[in-house]
Amino acid sequence: MTHTDTGRAHVRVERFCRIAVLRMTRPETRNSLDAAMREALLQAIGALNDDPAIDAMVLAGSGRAFCAGGDLNTMMRMTPEQAEGRIRAAHALPRCIHNSAKPIVAAVEGACAGAGLGLAAVCDLLVAGTAARFVTAFEKVGLMPDVGAAWSVTARIGPQAARRLFLLGGTLDASKAHEMGLVDTLAPEGRAEAEAVDLAERLARTAPGTRRCVREIFREPPASLEDALRFEAAHQPTLYLSADLHEGIAAFREKRDPVWRDA
Predict the structure, then answer these.
(1) Cα separation, 8 vs 259, whole angstroms
(2) Is 75 left (phi over 0), alpha (psi -120 to 50) or beta?
(3) pLDDT tens-digit profile of 195-234?
(4) For residue 263, what pLDDT is reported?
(5) 208-219 and 225-240 are packed helices; what angle lies between their axes, rounded to 10 degrees?
């Protein structure tokens, strides 16, 4: 394992073979998102997407929380221009995670609130420890869901459940969040990151072409059967002709692990 610090220690990157853990390191603020942390995450994700030695990432917090949301101290006394600039800057991070060339798994322990909820939900997979808490928080300070949470949370739990959650606010414990579909995998307390790394390793073992196509189609899920068939027609022929198809069939017949060639 190697360590790489970025963004004035707001984010630490830890490497485990072909997996990178991006750790938010502002435990004194429960990893609240300020401009420096957002920029550090953007830089780290961009660099890891360009790194051929990394196949998947895990997003985790430090201390007792995943992320408490936006930094409230920086929201006070803004001009109209600053308010518009702030939200535009905030949108870069969920877009970066959503459009990442490599899958990202969220590992949630403790509080996951406000913008932190949106960031966790936009990841490909979400693992939570049993003591994790998911808090809308926006309604408590007179704001609306941001960083795309109205889309990413709705994609996980459905429109009516999301509408109720964001209108009434409140806290979901990890078990309820798992039952609703917000959480993909429930882990013992303190084990969310280990489970997330395990899932990332499983993702890294899948065929790159398969992984790429599946993630692309579920970024904007097909609205109809015809949409799904059109996507297949555009991409499946390329996979039919790939060296990895031949390798996958050979490995299946020989009862061994495949060695994928597509990067």
Answers:
(1) 38
(2) alpha
(3) 999 999 999 999 999 999 999 999 999 999 999 999 999 9
(4) 54
(5) 160
Cα–Cα–Cα angle for 59, 21, 203, rounded to 5 degrees: 85
Instruction: Determine the residue type at 63.
Output: G
What is the rounded radius of gyration, in angstroms, for the C-alpha atoms of the chain?
Answer: 19
Instruction: Report the share of the chain in percent with pLDDT over 70.
Output: 96
Burial 178-206 (b: 16+ CB within 10 A, else e): bebebbbbbbeeebbbebbbbbbbebbeb
How many other β-carbons are positioned within 10 Å of the β-carbon of residue 116? 29
Q: Write down all domains in the chain, each with its CATH number in brackets.
A: 2-204 (3.90.226.10), 208-254 (no CATH)
User: Can you give the pLDDT at residue 213?
Assistant: 97
> Are residues 107 and 196 in contact, defined by beta-carbon separation less than 8 angstroms?
yes
Token readout for 136 is 């809308």
Enumerate residues 6+ apart whose C-beta is below 8 A from 158: 181
